[in-house]
Amino acid sequence: MAVAEATTRDGGASFGWRLLRWFVRRREASVLIIAVGLFVYFWIANSAFVDRADIKNMTEYGAPIALIAAGEVMLLICGEIDLSLGQLYAFGPIIMYLTSNSSGEAVPGATVAGLGLPIWVGVIFALLACAGIGLATGVITTVFRVPSFITTLGMLFFLNGLNLRLLSGEQIVLPFSQTFQNILGGYGAPNGPFPFYLNSEVYWALFLILLVQFILSYTRWGLHTVATGGNLIGAAESGVNVRKVKIGNFVLAATLAGFAGMMDSERINSIQPLQGGTDIMFLAVAGAVIGGTSLMGGSGTVIGGLLGVSVLVILRTGFNILGVNAYNFDLITGVAIVGAMVLNVQIQRLKNIGKLQ
Amino acid sequence: MEHDEVNEELAEQRLEKALGYDRASLLKRIAVGGAAVSLPAFLAAQDALAAPARPEAGGGGNYPSHPKWKFAFINHVTTNPFFVPTQYGAQDACALVNCTYSWSGSENAILSQQLSAFNAAVAAHAAGIAVTVTAQGPFEKPINNAIRHGIPVVAYNADGGRTGAHTRMAYIGQALYDSGFAMGQRIAGLVSKGDVALFIATPGALNIQPRIDGAIAAIKASGKGINPKSVTTGPQVPAELNAIDAYYLAHKSKLKGMFAVDAGSTQGVGQVIAKYSAKIPGGGFDLLTPTLQSIQAGHLKFTIDQQPYLQGFYPVIQLFLYKLSGGLMFPSDTNTGLLFVTKANVKPYLTTKSRYEGSSSKQKYPVS
């Protein structure tokens, strides 16, 4: 009877009704509702929240975190995690700087002198170096069978030390040209050349996030990633090279994190060995999980990760706009993460009940 | 169902009557925001209710009535104990001139977070901003942008390098290079020659790097055969202690002194000297309680007080006067001091609990 009813309802449904049903079926629907709810709340609380300058501020702050979350989502889906992405975020720009800085002007006392190559070579070197780190992590995890939690925890400390060594703990004011900075994510003028005056960084991040979502949804690689995380043995027995899939996703996540760091260093006009770190990594992991990615592997979406990060960024910026005292900040963030997650799970549950009827 | 609604409305009306419109509208907003966001709204409501919410409040002191301006303090380590008295200073100054302030930024010196908080303050049209400029390049454009929007900006505690950021209106804090230089002279008086370790939490950070530069310059200027080595300890106090401990163990045969240029490292130096009963002089900066105890016990020779209370107090006063005078009273550079605390004068620091040193939140006079 229930089935028959559903069929008739579907058959005679208006476009709006069908759109609603399609939307509710989406995994990201619940987190989108939370994000929009928070947005509206802060809007009511202080109209400066929707000020053009603040929208720009939020997107700039969120873009690199969302990009790191995109890589983390792919890893979580295939049943792994990378805790060192925050350090890769600092490592990428350091390599870019050391490659392109001329040796004469290297950091005083730095371990490695600059190579003085063109900046674009610096970008490529940095991406390759990050990919190399990802490859190492992947190989250690899959071939030597060390749980990725431990491998990447080790990598976290190793990279942090390496970053400090490479720059001797110093912070660098960017020597690169304004054009390069603008292209990669630079601060730009208050009215930059890009749509809605947002930074190029935001568009880079959006483009790459959509690309990773496309890979996840529409390619064999994506299918294999889901299969590996959902049922490792089953996937392996049906011919998926699970080791390759995992290593590939470690490389992908590491490269994206390094690129996020390079973009952000152009925006904040500075390269620092302690930039990012565990703060940004936990934000990315929290964003991925709030966005509906399972910590157990096998399910999740990159867009969901983007929305999850949006929730966190809206919260943080909203608090700043309201002038919430820094002492209350973490208190509320903690409650908000769990609260958002409870809402998310409950909305999901209601959705499931709704589907059963 | 209907009954509940009526009850709810009645309760709301009663609240409105009792507490004024603001509380009620805030409560409505809490209801709109849902469970996840009710806490910030509640805390914001607390802040709002702590002071009368009239837009035109009394002027405070002898001043005419003026809007209740809200000044934003943007800090690089918001929860660091060093800045507790700074917040008391800002609070007390705000009470004097009938303004308010907010306290935000980054907890762990993450630049992008601090910048994001700064930009949010600009978007929220803060009446004025006080910011710790710990890095030279990144703050230039945001500060310019704020000033273009008519928001006065002063630097406090850290000034983007020895020469100072060009964009901020004034710097309120210790003359960092000079304080380092004075420490270097003191070191040259304590050590005749040999290796001396200079510990620094985060090299290059512009609230402490100028000190180490100053110290090295003074040691060189002394012409003694002292060989200063700067050693990185990291931003977290427990890790700083470990770093200093390890450095001491590895170099104790040649080490003639250990000094530090930040609060956490100074505390660590005192603790390591005490742990190994080391017979070498030590010293550093700031007034964390373990540091003061080390001075009392004779493990540290000196520490330098930079009066963090004033670093919250003066920015508010200066920003307030700028607003009140329509820009005629332009903020001016203010040195918050360079006072050596030694065994001779450490006692009142340890025995007195005061807001001025962050050891008590109570307002009382006399302090002891």
Topology:
The complex is a heterodimer of chains A (357) and B (368).
Chain A: H1 2-11, H2 15-25, H3 29-45, H4 52-77, H5 85-100, H6 119-142, H7 148-167, E1 172-173, H8 178-184, H9 200-218, H10 220-230, H11 232-237, H12 242-268, E2 270-271, H13 277-290, H14 302-322, H15 326-356
Antiparallel strand pairs in A: 1-2
Helix pairs in contact in A: 3-14, 4-9, 4-10, 4-12, 4-13, 4-14, 5-6, 5-7, 5-12, 5-13, 6-7, 6-12, 8-12, 9-10, 10-12, 13-14, 14-15
Chain B: H1 2-19, H2 21-33, H3 35-50, E1 56-57, E2 66-67, E3 70-75, H4 84-97, E4 100-105, H5 111-123, E5 128-133, H6 140-148, E6 153-159, E7 171-173, H7 176-190, E8 193-200, H8 209-222, E9 225-232, H9 237-251, E10 255-260, H10 263-275, E11 282-285, H11 289-297, E12 302-305, H12 308-324, E13 334-335, E14 339-341, H13 347-351
Parallel strand pairs in B: 3-4, 3-5, 5-6, 6-7, 7-13, 8-9, 8-10, 10-11, 11-12
Antiparallel strand pairs in B: 1-2, 12-14
Helix pairs in contact in B: 1-2, 2-3, 4-12, 7-8, 9-10, 10-11
Strands of chain A, count: 2
Derived from helix and strand composition plus strand pairing, the structural class of chain A reads mainly alpha
Largest interface: A-B, 64 and 52 residues
- From the spread of the alpha carbons, the general shape of chain B counts as globular
Number of helices, counting only DSSP H or I runs of 4 residues or more of chain B: 13
* Cα-based radius of gyration of chain B, to the nearest Å: 24 Å
What strand line-up does the widest sheet of chain B have? Answer: 4-3-5-6-7-13
User: Could you describe the largest sheet of chain A, including whether it forms a barrel?
Assistant: 2 strands, antiparallel
CATH topology of chain A: the name is ABC transporter involved in vitamin B12 uptake, BtuC
Give me the strand/helix succession of chain A: HHHHHHHEHHHHHEHHH
